[in-house]
Amino acid sequence: MRSDAADRTSASNQTGLEMGDFLKLMVAQFQNQSLDSQVDSTQYITQLAQFSAIQAMNAMTQSMGKQYAASLVGKTVAVETPGGDVTGRVEGVNYYSDGSSWLVVGDAEYALSDVIQVIDPAQQETAAAGETEEQPSAETSEKA
Questions:
Q1: Are 80 and 46 in contact (CB under 8 A)?
Q2: Are 91 and 73 a contacting pair, CB within 8 Å?
Q3: CB 3.0 to 4.6 Å from 99: which of 48, 62, 63, 117, for a disulfide?
């Protein structure tokens, strides 16, 4: 079961143009151009290269999102939902064909983009035991 906030996030990600849309627009421009106006084909090649670069960056972003989602398994997260914040342990991750990553917390799924806080289990245990880690002072850090 996906949360309502996550559904809205996923739906908003599906509004972008794809390579096929770009090629259809380019073909339509070629078909509808008049003989009086010559089109510089280098402009189309430049636009195609830019579009390809954007697609590659989007693919890399999705891949990094999947890796990050997987790194949250076993950690406690706080997730923002319309009904209020939900806190729980990430038990798994589901990946969908639209490229979205959903965290399984309890009996529900939440979009990775809805996570507002991550708590590492080791830090929870340390805090529960009353231990604190010493951080180097600014003076010590500057001398190194």
A1: no
A2: yes
A3: 62
Question: Which of 23-27, 102-106, 130-134 bottoms out in mean pLDDT, i.e. has the lowest?
Answer: 130-134
pTM metric for this prediction: 0.58
Distances (CA, A) of 102 to 9, 53, 67, 71: 11, 26, 12, 13
What are the angstrom distances between the C-alpha of 103 and each of 7, 19, 48, 60?
Answer: 13, 29, 35, 19
Closest CA to 51 of 25, 14, 12: 25
Using left for φ > 0, alpha for ψ between -120 and 50, and beta otherwise, residue 2 falls in beta
pLDDT digits (tens, 9 = 90+) for 111-127: 999 999 998 767 766 65
- The span from the CA of 46 to the CA of 108, in Å, is 45
Confidence at 106, pLDDT banded by 50, 70, 90:
very high
Q: Domain-by-domain residue ranges, the chain?
A: 4-132
User: What is the per-residue DSSP string for 92-133?
Assistant: EEEE-TTS-EEEEETTEEEEGGGEEEEE-HHHHHHHHHT--P
Give the CA distances from residue 97 to residues 51, 62, 74, 134, in Å, rounded to whole numbers and listed in that order.
21, 11, 24, 44
